From TrEMBL:
It comes from Triticum aestivum. The keyword Cell membrane does not apply. PROSITE patterns: ADENYLATE_KINASE. Keywords: Kinase, Nucleotide-binding, Transferase. One of its GO terms (molecular function) is AMP kinase activity. This is adenylate kinase.
Length: 276
């Protein structure tokens, strides 16, 4: 058990319980490293782990880059859960459970919730998934800090960390264009990007991600994000787990290239994946 976990485990009893269940996700810790781990999956197989292959991935990227979009698509394709800690926080807030008042103050001020709370929420989610027979995960929004990365490393092997990157001008426009529905919490983006290609490359076009009609009148801008992404990137880069992926444009251009970079082939017959 890592020092970070011990430090955490010294916290509140509830935190200890949460950490113990995060440890449940570490059953496969010590398995060989990641490259091509999912490559042995049978073409079109019904589940992700039929031959012992795992997907234990993390998505990193600046706010607005599209982590949730690509993590969600991959999770559907690979048949593993997409676990976004922001969603876990929002669900907890909506539940009016014991944490919700404390959480709403933190989240409304655009701050990160404590490692203990986020780990408890993640543990609970993984435990529920485990009971339903879920295997593997694609994490989005976690880890956000080096301490969270250390805790995760202490309990399980992460196979791959996909760091989504976008040209600065496009990223800026995407950040400014972020909107959230004040009622359902859904995330949207009103930015419509159409900029010259770099070094004679193709234009970069990214259409807006508009809300459904029922959310249109409830859109609010989102709190400025002042988080520092680099330390977590560096943490995984130093461990040889970071795959940097420069988004070439919107989903139609980026999705096939991302699959290519991950050595995944979409199976047109049944919309499941297979190794390229
Ligand atoms: N790993 C985490 N560590 C701490 N707080 C988190 C974490 N993930 C989510 N949160 C909390 O939940 C809120 C919503 O998360 P998310 O949707 O990922 O962020 P954003 O709304 O900035 O895209 C964050 O502002 C933060 O308060």
């Amino acid at each position: 058990m890592s020092r970070a976990i011990r430090a955490c485990a010294a916290g509140a009893a509830a935190s200890r319980r949460g950490l113990a269940s995060v440890e449940a996700m570490g059953a496969a810790k010590g398995a060989p490293p990641a490259a091509g781990r999912w490559a042995g999956r049978g073409r079109g197989g019904p589940g992700p782990m039929e031959d012992g292959a795992r997907v234990q991935w993390v998505f990193l990227g600046c706010p607005g880059v599209g982590k949730g979009t690509y993590a969600g698509r991959l999770s559907r394709l690979l048949g593993v859960p997409h676990i976004a800690t922001g969603d876990l926080v929002r669900d907890e807030l909506a539940s009016s459970g014991p944490l919700s008042k404390q959480l709403s103050e933190i989240v409304n001020h655009g701050k990160l919730v404590s490692d203990e709370i986020i780990i408890n929420l993640l543990s609970k989610r993984l435990e529920e998934g485990g009971e339903k027979g879920e295997l593997g995960f694609i994490l989005d929004g976690f880890p956000r800090t080096i301490r969270q990365a250390e805790i995760l490393e202490g309990v399980t092997d992460i196979d791959l960390v996909i760091n989504l990157k976008l040209r600065e001008e496009a990223l800026l426009a995407k950040c400014i264009g972020r909107r959230k529905c004040s009622q359902c919490g859904g995330n949207f983006n009103v930015a419509s990007i159409d900029i010259e290609g770099e070094n004679g490359g193709p234009r970069m076009c990214m259409p807006p991600l508009l809300p459904p009609p029922q959310c249109e009148s409830k859109l609010i801008t989102r709190a400025d994000d002042t988080e520092e992404c680099e330390p977590v990137e560096d943490f995984y880069r130093a461990r040889g787990k970071l795959l940097e992926f420069n988004l070439p444009g919107g989903i139609p251009e980026s999705w096939p290239k991302l699959l290519q970079a991950l050595n995944i082939e979409e199976d047109p017959d049944n919309n499941r994946s297979a190794a390229a």
